[in-house]
Write a structure and sequence with these properties.
Blueprint lengths: L4 E4 L1 H5 L8 H12 L3 E5 L8 H6 L8 E4 L4 E4 L5 E4 L4 H14 L2 E6 L2 E4 L4 H10 L3 E3 L3 H4 L7 E4 L2 H14 L4 E7 L2 E6 L4 H12 L6 E5 L5 H6 L2 E4 L5 H4 L4 E2 L7 H16 L1
Parallel strand pairs: 1-2, 1-12, 2-3, 7-8, 12-13, 13-14
Antiparallel strand pairs: 3-4, 4-5, 6-7, 6-9, 9-11, 10-11
Helix pairs in contact: 2-11
């Protein structure tokens, strides 16, 4: 199979634990792009927090794309055009706030490249460190959110958040997508919107089939695209439940797992031909 697209999660997949791309992985991605393979970054991160990595990999020059907010936005890196956007209306966000109070967990969202929260907390600080976005602590979350937003997060210790996830996935299944991106991040987007559905939209515009796509990830918000792609790859550091659903398991994010996939399934194939 000749693959035409590589779709990559960021944290704990493309990125090492220090949030950098290893030299070997960067070289493999540049070699793949020179062969005409599209490299797509797909993350739960806001779009703003993905631009620097897109620039580092020269995605604009090679005409590639960003899938941000777990697929709620698709951005053409070359033209900066927004090809797809999904949002949650204020009344839905306010309802999620009420649920967060009932469940005793923290909540935050994004407005104008700022993380908005009513109560500063350790997990929102982690999000700020990962994304580079500042935190705005407001007196009233409900009064602050008066327009639609792309995504909402509930955050708390993993054990408690797992309980909340199980409950809300059942209660809100018909209304919105509920998925954990990290053990302490529970994310809410519009119903039916995942990295997998957005990937499907993207390849249709490009005339690429799902069989020609490699998707690599490590967490539950990556599962939809891993299952959708012709070659769905789980990182060596992924939970066993993700590995079991993948077609292939590579090495960890600290041991050039992404580079090894590209070398084996893209670059090696060119040499063999």
């Amino acid at each position: 199979m000749t693959y035409k697209m590589i779709v990559l999660d960021l944290d704990d997949t493309l990125l090492r634990d220090d949030h950098t791309i290893s030299p070997r992985t960067k070289q493999a991605l540049m070699d793949a792009q020179r062969l005409g393979v599209k490299v797509v970054l797909a993350s739960g991160r806001p779009t703003f927090a993905m631009h620097a990595l897109a620039e580092e990999l020269y995605l604009a020059e090679y005409g590639s794309f960003i899938l941000s907010f777990n697929g709620a936005k698709i951005i053409n890196c070359k033209t900066k055009e927004e090809l797809f956007s999904s949002t949650l209306p204020p009344e839905t966000v306010h309802r999620l706030y009420d649920i967060s109070r009932q469940e005793g967990v923290w909540i935050h969202t994004y407005m104008d490249d700022v993380i908005v929260t009513e109560t500063d907390n350790a997990f929102t600080k982690i999000e700020s460190e990962i994304t580079g976005l500042p935190i705005a602590e407001v007196n009233s979350f409900v009064q602050a959110v008066t327009e639609s937003v792309v995504k909402v997060l509930m955050v708390e210790e993993p054990e408690r958040l797992a309980q909340v996830e199980e409950k809300l996935q059942q209660e809100l299944a018909d209304e919105m997508n509920v998925i954990r991106s990290k053990p302490f991040f529970l994310e809410f987007t519009e119903a039916g919107v995942t990295k997998g559905t957005s990937l499907n939209l993207l390849i249709q515009t490009l005339g690429i089939t799902r069989e020609e796509v490699i998707a690599v990830g490590d967490s539950y918000n990556d599962l939809a695209m891993i299952e959708f792609a012709g070659l769905g790859v789980a990182m060596g550091n992924a939970p066993d439940s993700i590995k079991q659903k993948a077609n292939y398991v590579t090495d960890t994010n600290m041991n050039d797992g992404v580079a090894k996939v590209i070398e084996e399934f893209v670059l090696k194939q060119v040499v063999l031909i």
